[in-house]
From TrEMBL:
PROSITE patterns: DHAL. This is DAK2 domain-containing protein. Residues 12-211 form the DhaL domain. It comes from the Bacteria. It holds the Pfam family FakA-like_C.
Amino acid sequence: MAQVPQTFFDALAVRTWCGLALESLGRAREEIDAINVYPVADGDTGTNLYLTVESAVAAVEAVFTAYDVGKPTLADAARAMAHGALIGARGNSGTILAQLLRGMAQVLAADGETAHTDGPGLRLALRRAADSARLAVAHPVEGTVLTVASAAADAAHDAGDDDCGAVARAAYEGARAALAATPGQLAVLERAGVVDAGGRGLLAVLGALVETFTGEAVPVVSGAYARVETEAEECADVLETGGPAFEVIYLLEADDAAVARLRERLDGLGDSLVIVGGDGLWNVHVHVDDAGAAVEAGVEAGRPYRIRITHFGAGDAHTTGERLPRERVQRAVVAVVPGEGLAGLYGEAGATTVLARPGEPPASGELVEAVRRAHAREVVLLPNDAELRHTAAAAAEQARTEGIRVALIPTRSAVQGIAALAVHEPERRFDEDVVSMTSAAGATRYAEVAVAERQSWTMAGICQAGDVLGLIDGDVAVIGTDVTVTAATVLDRMLSAGGELVTLVLGDEAPETIAEHLEARVREAYLAVDTVVYRGGRQGALLLIGVE
């Protein structure tokens, strides 16, 4: 359906642009994924850009829905677009795109009461976008989306017309020329016979901007932008050697000073560092070998959440430090975890994680996306929560329709997931690995210590708000007033049936001495039983206990 051209850049133009950009990225997603060889050849740039814009679209639609009469201002729509992209940004290119949109929004929303802007305003917005994105990247590299964004801003500045459509078209043409030149700026692109994937995605977004103001779709970019060498075995010469093993992404609530310190800390831990945002909310992206340290740095800076940790490779590709472009690993583990500390722990063990914040369980679509991010032929899915079993089953079924072999292990607690992950061996047959992991999880009794939020009936009697509850295998078994005493009682009941290993996962609100007290109790009362302690972060429960 032909679009009605937008003469000025107003709230409706923002809405139209976002919708057209999502459609354009949807059409180009697989092509962009296929040419993704830099900075990591993990074949997900198109998908990450699509998910980032999808979040922006949802935020803009929510603003329009909130208006019963009239429509939002340009500032309302632009801020919503930027915020939606920020909280939904995925991957290196998605994070940079979020900053590009934020830079534009800073100009478009500068005068909160302005109904619209024109060509000069669009020029300024594109310039701010390119400059702010470049500043957000720790070590800018030419031949990437940053180069394409700068070229678009330069071309828009040189356009002689003050019409938004003419400015948008000039930006698009400038970006297209810059994109075609990227193989000459990055050797890895030249060897692969492709242009920069992030820049290709930005071109799709700018093409949608042209269509917004002119009503005319730009020609589909193809041919010269397709991979020259299409078979994986023909691409051995484009492998990037070395490089960190994990991608870590999280949202962070922190002030500017703390983020400045975080930049310095993360820059020393890895590469591909991009931190975007402002006004107390940031999106952090980095590639590191020590995923736990990257998460801990975020905890020191402020409050990280929506943490995603992706392991880049496995098998030969991982052990040699090489990454195969578009090549799926054989097997991966995807796990839902309740806290930042456990996200780091699972990530270090090679799992792709989905953070479940208290009261905000992940939807099946988020689990499907995590399975896709794992980029494996076979996936073991650990929901780590009894209430997530049906959600995980739906996600597994969806992933199977996409040709991924998925096994769902019905873990009901993160400590069962830890036990399963401990015996995971990607080299053995899939069925054998799943049986071993299922057996380890099933042999682990689990418990948690939490504080009651309200009065209620339990299997142990009536509890009042503020009481300390000890739950064993999901049922309340102990009601107490002291966290450490209640935890000790729960642990004694669990060990009365035997055990060889106790796992303690401490939440942020747990007493500082509880681990020391429980370790001493196990050491003194239960011979030959070992204890391991992990920091779980903001995991909801004060303490998680596992007994194997």
